[in-house]
Amino acid sequence: MSQPIIDRLVTALGTILLGKDGQIRLALACLLSRGHLLLEDLPGMGKTTLSHALAKVLGLEYQRIQFTSDLLPADIIGTTLFNPGQSQFEFRKGPVFSEVLLADEINRATPKTQGALLEAMEERQVTVEGHSYPLPHQFFVIATQNPVTQMGTFPLPESQLDRFLMRISLGYPDPKVERALLKGKNPRDELEFLQPAVSKTELDALQKKVSTVHVSDALLDYVQRILAHTRESSQFVVGLSPRAGMALVKSARAFALVSGREHVIPEDVQAVLGPVAEHRLSGSRDVTGHEGERLVDHVLKHVPVIGSR
């Protein structure tokens, strides 16, 4: 029952994000894992288009915040205002109270403003003046990030990065897709005609089904060898935490489901290892924290799929 729904989602998103089937499936796996997604790429690569398309095909409420250096935490979570008619203060909710929140160019805001999302992403609530306000059940943050080498950016702290289940890049389009774009085929024009491909009930069922995808002991042995290698090898300054290990297993389960399987295979772990681990790893050769791709390649080459724990 799950696969037809997933196929509908992939097909619908594929009409907007041309030639990016792999990234679409990873984004869906992140959503089904009830995680949050960080998109890092150059401007103009389709990051905003993907987030808007996801909200459309899922039938979820969507809000976008443009992060800038003068953005304040209250601009995100809301503020308390005095109501003279009732002679009391009342909380006016900010854009964070949506089902899909696009934090566009999140690293152009100051760390204080970035931190306004920490509680929301981890606890799915916000606290203002001692009162906690729950966020929608389907709360999904998609943040876009420009490369740290660009001017006017503030690197995301490790605690903020760790709130994102996955980080992916869309990359340049292949030549055939780019030729279609150059001829005037703009996928953004199709966004307004995009219809929901799944109901909220079906989406809830898919998310619950992720936890039922079977993970064998042998597969967990492989995951533990990966975790141990990142903690013991001299290539790494900081290894993967237990939370990162749980994120890896959860993402592998979701990716297996998106791929039409009810059990996880090593290829599922390998497919999600980069998106889950690259932004969490630090290497001994680079102080910028953007050496993750090389480190993941190192893990894939040096950690055997079959071996002792």
Search tags:
two-stranded antiparallel sheet, 11 strands, 309 residues, Helicase, Ruva Protein, domain 3, Rossmann fold, alpha/beta, 13 helices, 2 domains, 42% helix, five-stranded parallel sheet, single chain, globular
Protein model, in words:
The chain is an alpha/beta fold and 309 residues long. It folds into 2 domains: 181 residues, 3-Layer(aba) Sandwich (Rossmann fold); 92 residues, Orthogonal Bundle (Helicase, Ruva Protein, domain 3), CATH 1.10.8. Helices cover 42% and strands 16% of the residues. It has 13 helices and 11 strands. The strands form 4 sheets. The chain has a 5-stranded parallel beta sheet. Strands 3-4 form a two-stranded antiparallel sheet. Strand 3 and strand 4 form a beta hairpin. The longest helix has 17 residues. The protein is globular, with a radius of gyration of 20 Å. The mean pLDDT is 88.
What is the topology?
Elements: H1 2-14, H2 21-32, E1 37-40, H3 47-58, E2 62-66, H4 74-77, E3 78-83, E4 88-93, E5 100-104, H5 111-114, H6 118-123, E6 125-128, E7 131-134, E8 140-145, H7 158-161, E9 166-168, H8 175-182, H9 200-210, H10 217-232, E10 236-238, H11 242-258, H12 266-277, E11 282-283, H13 292-302
Helix pairs in contact: 1-2, 2-11, 10-11, 11-12, 12-13
